[in-house]
Give the backbone structure.
Amino acid sequence: MEILEKYNKLVYYCSHCRLCSIANYHELKEWVPICPSGSYYGFESYYAVGRIELIRGLIEGDVSPDAEDLLQIVYACQVCGGCYVQCKDHTAFGSVQNQVDTFEDLRTALVDSGVGPMPAHLEIKEDTLKYHNPYKVPNDQRFDWLEGRKVSDKKEIIYFAGCTASFREKEIAQATVDILNKLGIEFSVLGSDEWCCGSPMLRSGLRKDTMELIEHNYNAIVKSGAKKVITSCAGCYKTLTQDYPRLLGKDKLEFEVIHSSQLFKKELKKRGIKLNQQDITITYHDPCHLARHASVRKDPRRVIGMIPGVKLIEFQRNNKNAWCCGAGGGVKKAFPDFALWTSQERVKEADNIPNLDAIVSTCPFCKRNLKDGVESLGRKYQVLDLTELLLKSL
């Protein structure tokens, strides 16, 4: 548990005020839940305050690493960061600590000590290291979705599609490439040299095993000579921009990483492109990796605002106070019922928006889980990625 020793004082800074469980009153005008795990399971141990107390117990020997239900309590959490935002905004300390990093360290400590992860996460590890993606598909099929779309031989700009957009939500990758082509932006891809960014394994505490993926992708990008990497996946963006430099021991990477929403906002504004009318009422779902972890909140909304006819009505919980889609942190794999419930709660929140046509997001994983929520509740909302909405108006 050596990795947890740095928290031996920080755990005592938590006053157990439970403000981490509810969203910011000043912005939302009322108290609303922000922690899916605590809301679903209903015990304090599943809230951030409970997990911090669990870390204290592990450090001081009051809790055994093989205690009953310990793994479930530790892993039944999307590591969405809702608790961190509330703690940072409400406490005099300006945040006890970044609970996202803290809980990922907790998982890593359990893995390193031979206790974790969950069996489902071991399956992710085995499949990802074998296939270089978690979907058990030969990695040389990663870019089959291109289907003849134009890709340049120049490697200055690379599109890093990510696993979910490559093997499941292919329409996101296709729309991204179609937009790049329409804007005349030359780009290339890594082909089978693009491996999983490592996010699913990192969130599960499999930090040492993930280094094989991180080092491969980093070396492949540097070797290509790329100066800019575009990704339409919030998880890939967070992992490439934050985890890669930290785990590789670098102040910054040799290449810029940009999310597709950031690129499209910049290019549309620079080129003065007039977009076609889209008569549709939408709400925007902020992905945790993008909105909270990476503070990318304005750019997607600015792209939406450029499309004539689109009426954007925000979720009650939005921006940094957004409710998680439910899929992240290894939850969809290990706790599918919990993941679906979390998505359903988001869809029910959308029911309060009049004449809603579509839920729009900027993450393949969010799209996938929100679709599951919509379908399971029998709703008729479209679930779209921003790239799909933008492509329709170009």
